[in-house]
Design brief:
Strand content: 25-35%
Shape: globular
Largest sheet: 4 strands, antiparallel
Structural class: alpha+beta
Number of strands: 4
Oligomer: single chain
Helix content: 25-40%
Order of helices and strands: EEEEHH
């Protein structure tokens, strides 16, 4: 499922899809709270229905959030 530009996810306004594959779809979005452009990774509905994949997705986010390296993305938020 592709989320179209103009869709609002929490405080993020989706601008465009920038990638897809594996476990997620990645979108460029505007963070309306902090007025910045961010990347959002979304677990597609056919995967989000499986609890073990949701848990894996959250583990991935926690692992990324614990890292500090210039060549690895920064995880700033996770939500349902």
């Amino acid at each position: 499922m592709v989320i179209s530009g103009g869709t609002r996810l929490g405080s993020y306004d989706v601008l465009a899809q920038i990638g897809a594959g594996g476990m997620g779809e990645v979108y460029q979005a505007h963070d309306t709270r902090l007025d910045r452009i961010v990347g959002i990774k979304v677990l597609p509905p056919h995967l989000a229905d499986r609890s073990e994949l949701r848990e894996r997705f959250e583990r991935e986010a926690k692992t990324i959030a614990s890292l500090n390296h210039p060549h690895i993305c920064v995880c700033r938020d996770i939500d349902h």
